[in-house]
Model the fold of this input.
Amino acid sequence: MTDYARPGDMVSALRLLASGPRLVLAGGTDLYPACVGRGLTGAVLDLTAVPEMKGVEKIAAGLRIGACVTWAEIAAAQLSPALAALQQAAVEVGGRQIQNAGTIGGNLCNASPAADGVPPLLALAAEVELASVQGVRRMPLSAFITGPRQTALRPAEILCAVLVPRAALTGRSVFHKLGARKYLVISIASVAVRLVEREGVVADAAVAVGACSAVARRLPQVEAALMGGVLAGAAERITDAAVAAGVAPLDDIRGSAAYRASAAAELIRRAVAGLTGGQA
Amino acid sequence: MTPTTFTLNGRKQVLTTDPGRRLSEVLREDCGLTGTKVGCDAGDCGACTVLVAGRAACACLTPLAQIAGQTVVTVEGLAATGFARLQAAFLRHGAAQCGICTPGMLMAAAALLSETPRPSEAEVEVALGGVLCRCTGYRKIIAAVCDAWREDVPIATATGIGARTERLDGPPKVTGRDRFGADLWQKGGLVVKAIRSPYDHARFAFGDMQSWQAAQPSVVAVFTAADIAGRNVFGVIAAFADQPALAEGTARFRGEAVALVAIEDDGAWPDLAGFPIRWDALPAVMTPHDAMADGAAQIHANRAGNLLTEGFVQRGDADAALATSAHRVTGHYQTAFVEHAYIEPEAGSAWMDSDTLVIRACTQAPVMDRDATAAILGLPPDRVRIIPSAVGGGFGSKLDLSVQPLLGLVALKTGRPVRMVFSRAESMAATTKRHPATITAQIGCDAQGHVTAMAFEGVFNTGAYASWGPTVANRVPVHATGPYRTPHIHARARAIHTNGPVSGAFRGFGVPQAAIAQETLYDRLAKAAGIDRLAFRLKNAYRDGDVTATGQVLAAAGIWECLAALRGPWARALGEALAANTKGGTIRRGVGVASCWYGCGNTSLPNPSTIRVGIRADGSVMLHQGATDIGQGSDTVITQICAEACGLPLAAFTLIGPDTFLTPDAGKTSASRQTFVTGRAAEAAGRELRAAILRQGNMGEAARLTLDGAAIVSDTGGRIDLAALSADELGYVFRAEQTYDPPTTALDANGQGTPYAVYGYGAQMVELAVDMALGTVRLLKITAAHDVGRAINPMLAEGQIEGGIAQGIGMALMEEYIAGRTENLHDYLIPTIGDVPPIDSILIEVPHPEGPFGAKGLGEHVLIPTAPAILNAIADATGVLVTTLPVLPHRLLAAIRGEEA
Done:
């Protein structure tokens, strides 16, 4: 028998968690697969009825995405072109069933190296809002995910929202994912690129790669090669060497390390070419 | 506990149970709605898809708490919510084969159709991308969903031979009423869980089981090999039987069962992690290379060199002929373990009916199950009754015992009803695989392109136990030449034990692996001889009167016709690829072709089927059909054949069985034999029944018979009042029973003889595009010409072709089972709805005199050409032939760049 709590407000949720450890559940798309053939054990805190964790809203600082917003909701939302990569990733997370249940907050807390939600959010310089009965703190997403399946979340803390700073809501973005089949596939590599253009020049560039290191990463060297340069032919300035220097891929059943680095570079070139109207 | 209230299929439900339970479990166990299937329990397969508030959800990932106040619709509620047309479209298009994924497909489609009543194919693919199907190849599902808006579709009335009759067992598959292995059990019984080896090779010893059991209140009993009264050895081929139902002291592969725990079936889950067993891991031999090395540890004491057995065929002098051939090519190949990945994990239930042990489970071979289970349990076979459940895909693996002896042991020992359902991981670890093959082959031809000779050496990793390894070793040399004249042949296939998973039967019994070598070498040979690849195959294709590698003179060889049917598509495809490639760019198009031939039924062994048909005094026609329909359509096809032969309408027939107490032995569903062998018995039984009717009614040979209530009426005026006739001991006023056993002969020391009475043939053409910078492959179209002798039911035949192609795609491009690494359906990849391109099926009919109405087998043939045709098309596009399967993107890119993968 599970001690199953599904509070209807944030304060209750935080108090429950403060009173003792609980398995935190949202869409269930990672939690249930981790206990195939048996039930959830121990105390559970189901966050899906907490209204503060739902909805996508514009705030003074930028955009606030509730941690329990599902991928289907993100895909269907009216968002600025800077978030196109996130919306494209939203329809690549599992199938429709997973997109209807899986949440953006869950994707981050699960901290899979291949999580499709992470590169687009890194390219948006996203922050996470972490709440506990002690209060709320914020940190960059890049600092939140600390390793495979590891985050900076403290005991009794809930990731309640993802914040996209206003400065990152500019430009246009694109997401590319590579897998060995069409649907329901864990990425061999995934990339998100956001470019801000001003008068034919790349004014800002954000390039993030997933599944090619223990934690998805931005590639500053690649970004530097893009920034300040003319838009036309920008893709040609991305070298395999610069990408390889920025990632740390593993050999596994899905692909070799060398392949991952090479594929990531190619995907970034294609993403940039797509955003700049050129050919990769 | 607060009750959870929700609306289920239009009715209010109030359930007082753990709110953290999976909705799938609650629907099945508490609400009695077993139409929602559990294929993986992890959101990987989508079989459990239901609608929650109108949206598709995996019920296995949905806590009951989250549906409080919501509306839930399952497959059982589909018709009442306006989707009867969708269900009808699935039947009309043949979109359901085994039916295990069908509820999930229907629910995902319903979510789409609610928003988009007339979707495009692309929209269907996106909406159904989260549901896996292993049978259909998806194309008929796409067609059905796109077509589901239609009203007033005329009902097809033709049912005879050649009619696209809807499957007779179809309606329960689209309504959720079909009962698979996990769907029927007696309440208040026991659940059986197996303790399995976590090691590839280990010794083990049990600890204090009494104390452990005492501390686990829900555990009723624990059983080990010591509790087995009979012979704790099984194997599908008696001479090689070597596998214990429960291991004795040593586990030889990861996933081998060593003990059973019987648990009260009240929802309690004892913690089995603390089961008292001590493991001592032993060195494991994982590759045939290591297993054949001098001094390698012997996995079975009586099999030196870890050699299970070898098959051998020799005709002429291959070495001499190769040495003098104008052209010769040699290749080395390596294929992977391939998992069957049916969406239904093994499952069943068992109970005692007085002193008879009844086992109801998913299987392909009820009589073999009965005999093997009886031997293990020390029972006479007539005290074991096997009732096959609906089978959610088999593809060869459900020919072997799985749950049967385990269920039987616990039911027999406790006297209580029991059930057992393998988890996905358990199903993948414990059951058989396709053999990984290491092949070296050489083929030569003369200056004009006539094939002269072949030398073939195959090593097949047969895993820890024999299973169907001997069949693979024997089948491969017989088929190694492909369907082509090869005057000189030397072919050997060895099955070598390792501590890998047990390799057994998988659609094609090793022939698909061999065809990869032969068909890719043919492309290289054609190039060397300067001949078009299709023309090269046509030049060498078997014709009637040709002699095979085993010395058999062929009749009704349809391969030339299949290849000839591809001439038009071939010219078009080559032209289109050339035009596309001329433009340059990163994407390169390629076209490939490959053939198959495949002998139907056992290799040089008796292989009979018996069919009984009877008419009751009330006019009902009962067909005792013992062949298990695992989705391929034998229930429908065999009934169509019998109906045609006796001249009574298909609709008059009622199917009985399969059930070892009610149906004569129709053999196993294996080796593409049911349409041919059981069909031939059904034809003979139908003709015998007709003859008896005509005799009784004094009707002429040409009489057209109909049933008029309890009377048979002839169009020539005769009438038989059935109620006036006396019934036999089975209640029949007319009864016929016929057996057919295909005429074959044994193979001699050089593999010479007649191993099969009938062969089927096929050729497939693949068009694809390769991304030269990423090493990814996109399939564009597959054209498949198959000689089926006579298409009894073209819709079902197309379904076999499309489904076999999908499995061939998986084998070529993505499937590789690694014990301990890919025991789930997200690390082990099978094709999704987006991975199977449009398929154009061309049915060729070269009737065989042995087949019923000329029909040949088809089920396995369809998988064989796909992978080599893909490899050939990739080589055509890129200039490189990849010889290690699967062709994952990193392997292909490394090959394109001339690197080691």
User: Anything to note?
Assistant: Chain A has a mean pLDDT of 96. DSSP finds ten helices and 14 strands in chain A. The two ends of chain A are 56 Å apart (CA to CA).
